[in-house]
Amino acid sequence: MSALWTRSNSFPLADSHILVAASSPWREAVLSVFQGLGITPHLVETLPEAVHFLEFRQPEFLILSEQFSSRDDAPDPLLTHMQGLLTSQRREIFVVLVSRVAKTGDMLSAFSQSVNLIIHPEDIPNLTALITESWNFWRELYHVFTQTRIQLAEN
Fold first, then answer.
1. Is it true that domain 15-154 has CATH number 1.20.1600.10?
2. Its pTM surpasses 0.90
3. What is the per-residue pLDDT across 29-78, written as a single tens digit (0 to 9) for each?
4. Which helix (H) or strand (E) holds 65?
5. Are 146 and 1 in contact (CB under 8 A)?
């Protein structure tokens, strides 16, 4: 079982590997929030850099901004890459999309984008609280599935 499922409920970002794939000006805002808490996330600035990171390291959290690796209305290539990961690898990454298109916490939009949480850029100052709340909800929702998967793996 990954460390993502064993994180503290009060602050799951503590001691996590966090990958930030965001374009300006949101990159700076996201980094500022984490740095204010003494957290140093790993920053990637290009799609190849992000894909390379995902191939060799397993982040628990991915913060992705819309149009990070695509400047048009086409699906983001990094999200497309994420959908191609092994299920066992993808389920262990909590993906947060910073997007102007949807409201913060819109679960239907998050589901349609194959992400765990959408955050509107205006809500970036509350990033860690929003992630913690959403992660706790997500963890509770999939708790039975996770426990069953662990028990089956042990047998």
1. no
2. no
3. 999 999 888 888 999 999 999 999 998 888 999 999 987 877 666 678 88
4. strand 61-65
5. yes
